[in-house]
Amino acid sequence: VSQERKVPGIPIEWYTQWTFTNDTPHPDPKYSDIPVSVIYVGPSTLDPGSSKRPLICWPHGGPHSTLVNAYSPLAAFFVRLGYSIVFTNFRGSLGFGQDGVDALPGYVGNTDVSDVHKGTLECIKRFNSVVDENNVFLFGGSHGGFLVTHLAAQHPNFYKAVAARNPVTDLGTMSSITDIREWTFVEAGEDFKHSSVCGPAELTKMYHMSPISLIDSVKIPVMLLIGKNDRRVPPSQGINYYKMLCARGIETQLHLYEDCHPLSKVDVELDVLVNSALWFDKYKAAQ
Question: What is the pTM of this model?
Answer without folding.
Answer: 0.95
